[in-house]
Amino acid sequence: MYSDAHFHLSERMKKILETNPLSGIISCTTPKECIEAKAFLSKHSSYTISCGIHPWKCDTITWKEMLPFLEKAQIIGEIGMDNVWCKKDLDIQKTIFEKQLQFAMQHKKPVVLHTKGMEKEILECIRLYPNTYHVHWYSCMEYIEEYRDLDCYFSIGPFPSVDKSVQKVCQLVPCDRLLIESDGIDAISWALHRNIQDDEYLSSLYTIAKQIGDIKKKTAEEILEITYHNLQRFLTQKTL
Ligand SMILES: [Zn+2]
């Protein structure tokens, strides 16, 4: 059973998913993306939408324009802060992040976190907003235990073998809190430093499962099964 706990819906991903149906979360970062994902979902019901103002868009997408979509979404995210891949003002990032954390907690919606470079600050923030959290593609050698002890889910991106911090996540986080994600077909190409073909999408998810399994002393098939069920549990989680 394949699952993809976090990806963005490009035209290419739509085509790939038409022929490789699986279970997954489509991450939408703008109203336009939410509308497109909803149209896709009308024909492909095995996916769930997550929606949130991404830290990279904290000063271009307004709370007002996103609010109707946050209200409809089952999952809030990816939201967070980032001081590595974007140079947006951190005060603006934090304000919009906390506003969304508060909204998610009040409306009992689980949250997907983007933590790049801001792992410590985000950990401090989420302690203030008890909820069910899914830490997307965590890549930091520190604070893994602290997030784990808050019962967070962790999605493992492409590929554990090329990132020591992702390996450390696999080692420290129990199997029942692990998920598999591609972050979209382009992210797989990015991780491999080459353009991959559409038909390499599923085999890439398999490779992630295999590499998690090597660390957890399980087969790729067992990891695919476990992560699939973990995703279903995350999706039906009733938050506090
Ligand atoms: Zn993403």
Automatic annotation (TrEMBL):
Pfam families: TatD_DNase. It comes from Amedibacterium intestinale. A divalent metal cation 2 binds at H114, H136. This is TatD family hydrolase. GO terms for molecular function: hydrolase activity, acting on ester bonds; metal ion binding. Keywords: Hydrolase, Metal-binding. A divalent metal cation 1 binds at H6, H8, E78, D183. The keyword Translocase does not apply. Transmembrane segments: none annotated.
